[in-house]
Each structure stands twice: as structure tokens, then as C-alpha cells.
Amino acid sequence: METIESTRESENAVILTPPSFGEYWPGQGGIYCGTLPAMHGLPARHMIFAKDAEKTLTYGCYGINVPGAASRIDGPANTAALLAAKAANGRDYPAAEYCSTYEADGHKDFHLASQACLFMASLCAPQIFSKDDWHLSSTQRSAYGAFVQGFEGGNSDWSRKGYEFRVVPLRWIQL
């Protein structure tokens, strides 16, 4: 399906029509994996996961509870909190660092996916993710654990921040 752009006169906003779930979205930096509804103060948004950019990394800083990195839906806020913690404590947060520096199709607004984004992707486009390992989210549970998502059977769980998991950069297109 071809991307169609049109402008709403009243809002001056660009409306993008996404391709089918799991298909590359030309010019948007990756693969379309669904739309999240507006909730908890966040607007509705399309999810675009980077294509062929999966890496195996750790969350980082096992034993440190990072303030502001526990949102189950706001990956950009969690990622920003992790990067701020690095600046404050000098410790590394490899998954957040990788995702925040990723660029594709001229877009530089990637982040580490939240728990809700990974879960939604497992429902809408599981075929684009590796099945041989869990995928790490930006959502921490405690100083010791973070949320992970499986794509083989759709299981979700918490695991240790020090373990290595798959990471795929994500960007949003606000609706």
C-alpha cells in the first residue's frame, strides 16, 4: 500500500496512511507495527520499529532504580530518564543509548520501546521480531528488573537488568 499524505485545513496537520502491519513504511524509518490509542495523557500514535537494526544489549545499571523510567506506556520518557541518569551517575544504559542515537530515513527520534509498545507489537506484527530471545523494554520494575517481551508465544515477564536481550529502536508518529 502506498503512503498517502493530505493536509487538514483546520489543523494544518499531515495525515499519513500507514501500510499493513509488519510492512516497511517508506520514508518513516522502519516497519509499521500498529497504532496505540490516546491514553494517560499521551496522544494516539503509530509505532515504527527500525528495520534490520536489532541488537543484543543490556538495560544497564543493575541495582539502580532510575527515577522516571517506570512508565509502562511512555518509552520516550523512560529513555530520557535513562539518559539523564547516565549524565548524573556516569553509568551506562546501553539499550537506551543505542535506540536514542539510531537514525533512519532522516529521522532521529527513536527511543527504547515501553512495555505497552512491545506488547502491542507482539499482537500486531510478531513476524518481524526474532523469536530466539526476549526483547527488552525501557520499563523498569525495580532497581534490579525490567520488562521483557517474547515474540514466539507472546509471553511477557520481568527479568534482570544485567542480562542481555534483543533491542529494536522505535519511533512514534503522533496522530
Structural overview:
- By secondary structure, the chain is α+β, with helices and mostly antiparallel strands.
- It is 19% helix and 31% strand.
- The strands form four sheets. It has a five-stranded antiparallel β-sheet with strand order 3-4-5-12-7. A three-stranded antiparallel β-sheet has the order 8-9-10.
- The longest helix has 15 residues, at 75-89.
- The radius of gyration is 16 Å and the shape is globular.
- The two termini are 19 Å apart.
Q: What descriptors fit this protein?
A:
3 helices, 175 residues, alpha+beta, 19% helix
Helix/strand layout:
Blueprint: E1 5-8, E2 13-16, E3 24-25, E4 30-36, E5 45-49, E6 55-58, H1 75-89, H2 94-101, E7 111-112, H3 115-124, E8 135-140, E9 145-149, E10 156-160, E11 164-167, E12 169-174
Antiparallel strand pairs: 1-2, 3-4, 4-5, 5-12, 6-11, 7-12, 8-9, 9-10
Helix pairs in contact: 1-2
